[in-house]
TrEMBL record:
<feature type="transmembrane region" description="Helical">
    <location>
        <begin position="63"/>
        <end position="82"/>
    </location>
</feature>
<protein>
    <recommendedName>
        <fullName>histidine kinase</fullName>
        <ecNumber>2.7.13.3</ecNumber>
    </recommendedName>
</protein>
<dbReference type="InterPro" id="IPR003594">
    <property type="entry name" value="HATPase_dom"/>
</dbReference>
<feature type="transmembrane region" description="Helical">
    <location>
        <begin position="94"/>
        <end position="114"/>
    </location>
</feature>
<keyword id="KW-0808">Transferase</keyword>
<feature type="transmembrane region" description="Helical">
    <location>
        <begin position="134"/>
        <end position="153"/>
    </location>
</feature>
<keyword id="KW-1133">Transmembrane helix</keyword>
<feature type="transmembrane region" description="Helical">
    <location>
        <begin position="194"/>
        <end position="216"/>
    </location>
</feature>
<dbReference type="InterPro" id="IPR014265">
    <property type="entry name" value="XrtA/PrsK"/>
</dbReference>
<feature type="transmembrane region" description="Helical">
    <location>
        <begin position="228"/>
        <end position="249"/>
    </location>
</feature>
<dbReference type="InterPro" id="IPR005467">
    <property type="entry name" value="His_kinase_dom"/>
</dbReference>
<feature type="domain" description="Histidine kinase">
    <location>
        <begin position="483"/>
        <end position="685"/>
    </location>
</feature>
<keyword id="KW-0418">Kinase</keyword>
<keyword id="KW-0067">ATP-binding</keyword>
<keyword id="KW-0472">Membrane</keyword>
<feature type="transmembrane region" description="Helical">
    <location>
        <begin position="38"/>
        <end position="57"/>
    </location>
</feature>
<dbReference type="Pfam" id="PF02518">
    <property type="entry name" value="HATPase_c"/>
</dbReference>
Length: 701
């Protein structure tokens, strides 16, 4: 139809005129301080050149296609320069890979033009070249639209008013190109109606684009939404995937007969299976998230989102019975996308032991998880340990000498973050390696350090609340004991008076004798009870004497052997300085606990030996065992008992009694394996050397 061709030439001529005038206006009157002004002038001029070529020659001429490629490259460059409007090199660096990729895809059109001219007489080859060119143009349009969207959404509110004309014009241009080439691919040829109006579309787009340079430029701050960037990257990956599958499916047209049908069905099944397995995977999502953050943002973290998630995790309450310690680990692990973590807390001697774990299966952690020397370095320097660096021999404050072997060998261990509260080490969180491995950088260290201090304040506040609650319970217990002791004293005085009166007035010898025996026994029992109650909190004033732990162990076997199997696996002479009654009472409680935790036929084992400085007596059972959380938070907490009618002060009293004798009570336990209570007391000979004296006699400690 000749009139269609004539109308197309007229509209292309109009487009060339309008684009040329727009280029001259921007060059003369456009905002001179905008770095993208001359790129916009070049793009408008090349668009006018393309419209002029399309008005002068048929659409299939090589000159028309080459000028179209030059026009598209110029508009891609304009889009690239718009991101630099704030003058920061970082913005250019972040979008450069995307712009270069679009330019490369567009440059492929030149090679396709050469192939089309070479195989012009081959219909099948010409159709394949045409469809490939259409697919590449579709990908270029989609990529440009995504960048334009991020450009406008990521701009500061004050900059959007100046940017909207340019962004709207370019969005309209690439949207038109997307629809044009999509229809061309689906129909197998360029739609004549759209070919005719391309010149008019170019003229319409040139006007608002030129208007955008009428205002003075303002700083353009590139800060797109992270969620939006991640979704845009996901759409690009999915689009590229399906484009590749589409190209592969169409390339099968070169095959013939059943082979082609069989191959197409197989490709369809393989593509669907790959999409179901690969695209929804956590690893794929992690890769896309890391890629988006690395290339589209100056900072790795969205601090507002991280703070909101951190606050929600720490302040979460519900019926899941998650402790604060576990939520502490999760809150820090969520920041680095770590799948699990451990919380190590200080023990009595300053070393670190396991306090809680979150999502860390099959954790084989020794009782002393981290030595006191390393804990001191972390407390003094606030050092965050990068275990990958440590395994390569890189150290900062001499920490490698004290790094535990289990942390070196545990490949899941990625970083150790100290929790400092007023320069005091509250704990250390060991983070597991994220699914997408990366190196820790300065931003990780800064954020983890700040969050670690915040978490330390929560843990310290909880410890303070527990201490206040414990002190309140002690105060209540002491007040109750004061009333009990007062009543017992009164009763003892009354009975003593009755005994004295009976001695004076009883006439019958038999009655007097029985009465005296009864009253004397009652008074002795009450006085003994009163003495025991009065000893609470005064263990340090009890008389001590040399004791052989082997003999003490034998007494325990004699005392409990009739009710449960008890054996001595190791018995060496170990003479210590201790209070006999207090030590026997503390050890009796430990043995009774071991019996209660064991099955009927499972023996409890006692070991006695000396290490040259202290005497050791261990009580070992093969019972149910205790969890790390219970060891830390429940075993030695007074007035908390799992037994009906129990005071819940047995384990606490045993530990305090042994401490008053300058000893230690340590516990190691594994759920399902058993428990070992270890009592250490200073040897008599070692204490004599330390005090600079000979063999001690009875004294007080």
């Amino acid at each position: 139809m000749e009139w269609v061709g004539s109308l197309g030439s007229v509209l292309y001529a109009v487009g060339a005129l309008v684009c040329g005038l727009a280029a001259l206006w921007v060059a003369r009157f456009g905002a001179g301080e905008r770095p993208d002004r001359w790129a916009g002038v070049a793009a408008l001029a090349l668009t006018a050149n393309w419209c002029f070529a399309a008005a002068s020659f048929p659409p299939d001429r090589l000159v028309v296609s080459l000028t179209e490629v030059a026009r598209n490259l110029a508009w891609i460059f304009v889009l690239f320069r718009l991101f630099a409007n704030d003058g920061r090199d970082e913005s250019l660096r972040l979008v450069r890979p995307a712009a270069i990729a679009l330019a490369i895809v567009e440059t492929f059109q030149i090679a396709l033009l050469m192939l089309a001219r070479r195989y012009a007489g081959w219909p099948d080859a010409s159709l394949m070249v045409f469809e490939t060119a259409a697919i590449l143009r579709v990908l270029t349009a989609v990529g440009a639209l995504v960048l334009i969207h991020n450009l406008y959404v990521g701009a500061a509110l004050s900059s959007r008013r100046l940017l909207r004309w340019n962004a709207a014009a370019m969005a309209g241009m690439w949207a038109f190109a997307l629809n044009f080439h999509t229809l061309a691919y689906l129909t197998g040829g360029a739609p004549p109606e759209l070919v005719v109006v391309q010149g008019l579309a170019a003229a319409i787009i040139a006007i608002p684009f030129a208007i955008g340079y009428n205002s003075n430029a303002a700083g353009l701050e590139f800060r797109p939404s992270r969620t939006l960037a991640f979704r845009s990257l996901s759409l690009l990956v999915i689009g590229a995937y399906f484009a590749v599958m589409l190209v592969l499916a169409n390339s099968l047209d070169l095959l013939e007969g059943d082979v082609r049908a069989l191959t197409q069905v197989g490709l369809l099944i393989a593509a669907g299976a790959l999409a179901l397995i690969w695209l929804p995977s956590d690893r794929m999502r992690g890769w896309m998230r890391v890629t988006a953050i690395k290339h589209l943002f100056k900072h790795r973290y969205d601090y507002r989102s991280e703070w909101m998630r951190f606050t929600n995790t720490i302040g979460r309450t519900g019926f899941d019975e998650t402790s604060l310690q576990e939520r502490t680990v999760k809150a820090l692990a969520d920041i680095t996308d770590s799948p699990s973590g451990l919380l190590l807390v200080p023990d009595d001697d300053g070393s670190l032991v396991l306090g809680a774990s979150w999502g860390w299966p099959n954790a084989d952690i020794p009782h002393r998880a981290m030595p006191v020397e390393l804990a001191t370095i972390l407390e003094r320097e606030g050092l965050i340990i990068d275990f990958d660096e440590a395994r390569k021999g890189v150290e900062h404050h001499g920490e490698l000498e004290f790094l535990p072997e289990w942390l070196r060998e545990e490949q899941r261990a990625w970083a150790a973050v100290p929790l400092l509260h007023f320069d005091r080490l509250v704990g250390v969180i060991v983070l597991a390696r994220p699914a997408i491995t990366r190196d820790l950088d300065w931003e990780d260290f800064d954020l983890l350090g700040i969050v670690g201090r915040q978490l330390a304040s929560y843990l310290a506040e909880q410890s303070g609340q527990v201490a206040l609650s414990e002190a309140s319970r002690f105060d209540e217990f002491n007040r109750r004991m004061a009333f009990v002791m007062h009543d017992i004293k009164n009763l003892s005085s009354q009975m003593s008076l009755l005994m004295r009166n009976a001695e004076l007035h009883a006439d019958k010898p038999e009655f007097r004798k029985d009465m005296l025996v009864t009253l004397r026994n009652s008074a002795d029992k009450l006085n003994l009870l009163l003495a025991r109650l009065g000893r609470y909190g005064t263990a340090g004033n009890q008389a001590v004497e040399p004791l052989d732990l082997a003999q003490v162990a034998k007494k325990l076997v004699d005392q409990f052997g009739g009710s449960h199997p008890i054996g001595i696996a190791r018995s060496e002479q170990a003479v210590v300085v201790a209070h006999a009654e207090g030590l026997e009472q503390a050890l009796a409680h430990l043995v009774q606990n071991a019996i209660d935790a064991s099955f009927d036929e499972t023996p409890v084992t006692i070991e006695v030996f000396s290490d040259g400085i202290t005497g050791q007596i261990h009580v070992i059972d093969q019972g149910k065992g205790m969890s790390p959380a219970f060891l830390r938070n429940g075993l030695f907490k007074p007035f908390v008992s799992s037994k009906d009618g129990g005071f819940g002060i047995g384990a606490y009293e045993a530990r305090e009694t042994i401490r008053a004798m300058q000893g230690r009570l340590d516990v190691e336990s594994r759920e399902g394996l058993g428990t070992r209570f270890s009592v250490s007391l200073p040897l008599r000979s070692a204490q004599a050397i330390y005090q600079g004296s000979g063999t001690p006699t009875k004294e007080t400690v």
